[in-house]
Design brief:
Bact_Sporulation_Assoc, single chain, signal, Cell_wall-bd_2, elongated, alpha/beta, 4-stranded antiparallel sheet, disordered N terminus, Immunoglobulin-like
């Protein structure tokens, strides 16, 4: 449908009472023509069509029409007029050769309100314009009236294609939709509902697919429409011979009204013959999955492969090597075949969660932070008869003292357990009794671990308290006590935050080195730190964290008396990875802890050091660098520290960050 675009602006003539005003001509004009149709067209609105020729001037293309409208018994005369008649009408030209082709009108009135309308059209010629009382009688040619009903439906649209998907399994569809009554242009939401009636009988199968408008379809200036398209993939249950009927519904109010059906279509489809798929191995990191080119019958006109990860297509190649970023995600591979008149078939090639070959996961978790530390202790010291020589005890409500206690506990051959500041949790007391240590070392002053806790612990084993005036002095006291014969090196971390020191604790404990805390910038604590390093005889220092955690000025102060290396990444997770990669070349066990909560990681740091493996801090997924590290280290076990509130259940399968 074409829309005439030239509109003549009406010119008002001055009327003098009792005098007829003439432009050209003095008598009635000789017009012929027809009002062919009045229709409501989905997506366009009300469209009026017809033609007009002035027999006095057959080639003239400046004739115009005058429109009257009647709705609800009320007539609006001349409510829209002076519309030129100059659209191409080859059929009129054939009947009136002397006139030429451009004598049609194709008038789009847009979208009026729902209801029944009567439109009456009269034609006029530029050769005679009369504005007196006899205007209609002398200078207009009535062409008749037509009635059209505008539906109440708020949306229009069409289903342009529906049938077997030529580029993958299932069926595909496309079409357009538009609001009928002037709603703002925007993205339309909709749903395609496929109902399959199997030839073999049985209940109908219904599947749905949601879609949104993807691009503007501007064939009506008053109301642009939106194209839509989609695929309903189907599965084995819907891959049957039968009648496939698709109905498309859209939301007329852009998200605020029920869906309204705009179109339906049906097609009968056959199915390919049965295919035997060769056995597939479970998907694993580093493996290559291959599409075997299945022998579909009859011969398909197109075939292909789709590899999906968690339902998202990631490759259409015949081969896919499973990288670290696929670990923990669900892989689904299909080989598909398409042929006109047949359901586009899909045969599953591989399915399952991508795993790390030879690696198992275990979770160390209790009902709270104290119980989680106990679970770690049980895993590290399963033999209650042997127990542990020394047990360290620190506050579980603050991280500072425990950061230095973790490597010290590992070096002493014991766990790090946590306590409430004011009372020793029963689960911790029970674990201390199971371990029957020869000494319990409490780290922190009486405000961190109260005398009452020390008394309760003293009933189990002799107690030693290590404390300083602040967290920095306490970390120096721990180093002096735990390393009485000195240490070749030391790790230095910020005492203001915890993530860097958690990973450093595992690395330091493994290397039999302390973790010492520092202020981010220069301070008396830094001066005291250099003294402690000198007393330990440390020949090298490893700073963990970027310059915002431990400043360049602190690094310079330390470098004045010993060799300094900095391990840092762009964030706490990548700093953790840098520490683990630098400190370990082989590890049977790797520990994972939350990068946003410290309690579990404190005890986990000591456990990782004892196991000879790194502790990586992570978020809601496992970074691919950590997965690569697990493989590089030759680890066979990953311990997830903390409950699912700390690290969600997807970490159980090493769900990779993508």
């Amino acid at each position: 449908m074409t829309i005439a675009t030239t509109v003549l602006i009406a010119i008002a003539a001055v009327i003098v009472p009792g005098v007829a005003a003439h432009a050209e001509g003095t008598g009635p004009i000789n017009l012929i023509g027809s009002f062919d149709s009045a229709r409501f067209i989905a997506g366009e609105g009300v469209v009026l069509t017809g033609w007009v020729i002035d027999t006095d001037d057959p080639t003239a293309t400046d004739n115009y029409i005058d429109l009257s409208q009647t709705v609800g018994g009320v007539t609006l005369d001349h409510f829209n007029e002076d519309f030129h008649v100059n659209a191409a009408r080859p059929d009129v030209a054939k009947a009136h050769p002397s006139a030429g082709a451009d004598h049609g009108f194709d008038w789009d009135l847009g979208f009026p309100s729902p209801g029944t309308y009567t439109y009456c059209i009269a034609a006029a010629s530029q050769e005679g314009i009369y504005t007196g009382a006899g205007h209609d009688k002398y200078f207009e040619k009535p062409l008749g009236c037509r009635t059209v009903t505008v539906p109440k439906q708020m949306v229009s649209g069409a289903l342009l294609s529906f049938g077997p998907n030529p580029a993958g399994p299932g069926v595909s569809y496309s079409g357009w939709t538009a609001s009928n009554y002037g709603h703002p242009t925007g993205t339309y939401t909709g749903r395609a509902t496929l109902t399959i009636s199997p030839d073999a009988g049985g209940p109908a199968i219904t599947e749905t697919s949601d879609f949104t408008g993807t691009s503007t379809r501007a064939f009506a200036p008053q109301q642009p429409a939106q194209n839509f398209s989609g695929v309903i993939p189907g599965d084995d249950s819907s891959n049957v011979a039968g009648t496939y009927r698709l109905c498309v519904s859209v939301n007329a109010q852009l998200g605020t009204a029920p869906l309204q059906t705009i179109a339906c279509s049906s097609v009968h489809l056959l199915t390919f013959g049965a295919v035997t798929v060769p056995p597939q191995s479970a998907p694993q990191r580093g493996a290559t999955v291959i599409s075997p080119a299945l022998p579909f019958t009859p011969a398909p006109t197109s075939t292909g492969t789709q590899w999906q990860l968690d339902g998202e297509v990631i490759s259409t190649g015949s081969r896919l090597t499973l990288s670290s970023s696929t670990v923990g995600h669900y892989l689904d591979g299909v080989e598909w075949a398409a042929r006109p008149g047949y359901v586009s078939a899909a045969e599953q090639l591989a399915a399952g969660v991508v795993s790390m070959p030879g690696v198992s996961t275990a979770r160390a978790a209790g009902s709270d932070r104290f119980a989680t530390a106990v679970e770690l202790s049980k895993q590290s010291f399963p033999d209650s008869a042997s127990g542990a020589r020394t047990a360290y005890l620190a506050s579980g409500t603050g991280f500072a003292d425990a950061l230095s206690a973790a490597p010290a506990a590992a070096v002493a051959g014991g766990p790090l357990l946590l306590t409430n500041p004011s009372s020793l949790p029963a689960v911790v007391a029970t674990e201390l009794k199971r371990l029957h240590p020869s000494r319990i070392v409490i780290v922190g002053g009486t405000s961190a671990v109260s005398p009452a806790v020390a008394t309760a612990a003293g009933r189990i084993a002799p107690v030693t308290r290590l404390a300083g005036a602040d967290r920095y002095a306490t970390s120096r006291a721990v180093a002096a006590y735990a390393f009485p014969h000195g240490a070749n090196g030391a790790y230095v971390a910020s005492g203001a935050t915890f993530p860097d020191a958690l990973s450093a604790g595992a690395a330091a404990g493994h290397a039999h080195e302390p973790v010492l805390l520092t202020t981010p910038g220069s301070s008396p604590a830094v001066t005291a730190l250099t003294t402690t390093l000198r007393e330990l005889g440390a020949t090298h220092v490893t700073i963990v964290g970027g310059t915002s955690a431990v400043s360049s000025s602190v690094q310079g102060a330390l470098a004045a008396s010993t060799r300094v290396t900095r391990l840092a990444g762009a964030n706490r997770d990548t700093t953790s990875q840098a520490i683990g990669s630098n400190a370990f070349t082989h590890a049977a066990t790797v520990y994972l802890a939350s990068d946003t909560a410290f309690p579990d990681g404190l005890a986990g740091s000591a456990a990782a050091a004892r196991a000879g493996g790194p502790l990586f801090v992570i978020g809601d997924c496992v970074p691919t660098a950590v997965i690569d590290a697990i493989a590089r280290l030759g680890a066979t076990k990953v311990v997830i520290v903390g409950g699912e509130n700390a690290l969600n259940d997807t970490i159980n399968r090493l769900y990779a960050c993508r």
